[in-house]
């Protein structure tokens, strides 16, 4: 479990991180254990690169592939539209909005 991600969710703070090809920034919403046993993060990406070309929107990330995670100074007010706090890709939760 990554305490920085838990703290960011509880404080409703954006995080900055390296994933895939480059830096990204987003609003973490749901962090838990996936059905396959991996730690997963459901995040609304607000800035940065994306392999899919969609630089803004919902992403499901493997936490083990995230590097250089930092809590940003930017806050967000709460859940984005279409957020499901009972994310079906996760069997248990460390933190969620």
How would you characterize the overall build of this protein?
With 97 residues, the protein is mainly beta. Helix content is 9%, strand content 54%. It has 1 helix and 6 strands, in the order H-E-E-E-E-E-E. It has one helix spanning 3-11, and strands at 13-19, 22-34, 39-48, 57-62, 67-75, 90-96. Strands 1, 2, 3, 4, 5 and 6 form a 6-stranded antiparallel sheet that branches. A hairpin with a 4-residue loop joins strand 2 (22-34) and strand 3 (39-48). The chain is globular.
Portion in beta strands: over 45%
Number of strands: 6
The shape, in one word, is globular
From the N-terminal CA to the C-terminal CA, the straight-line distance is 17 Å
Q: Sheet with the most strands?
A: 6 strands, antiparallel
Which blocks of ≥5 consecutive residues have pLDDT under 50?
none
Number of helix segments? 1
Q: Provide the helix percentage.
A: under 10%
Sketch the topology as an H/E string, one letter per element: HEEEEEE
Give the helices and strands, then pairings:
Layout: H1 3-11, E1 13-19, E2 22-34, E3 39-48, E4 57-62, E5 67-75, E6 90-96
Antiparallel strand pairs: 1-2, 1-5, 2-3, 2-6, 3-4
């Amino acid at each position: 479990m990554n305490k920085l991600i838990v703290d960011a969710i509880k404080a409703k703070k954006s995080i900055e991180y390296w994933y895939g090809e480059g830096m990204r920034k987003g609003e973490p919403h749901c962090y838990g254990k996936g059905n396959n046993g991996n730690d997963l993060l459901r995040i609304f990406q607000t800035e940065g690169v994306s392999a899919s070309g969609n630089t803004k929107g919902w992403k499901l990330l493997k936490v083990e592939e995230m590097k250089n995670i930092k809590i940003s100074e930017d806050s967000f007010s709460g859940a984005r539209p279409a957020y499901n706090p009972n994310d079906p890709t996760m069997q248990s939760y460390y933190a969620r909005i």
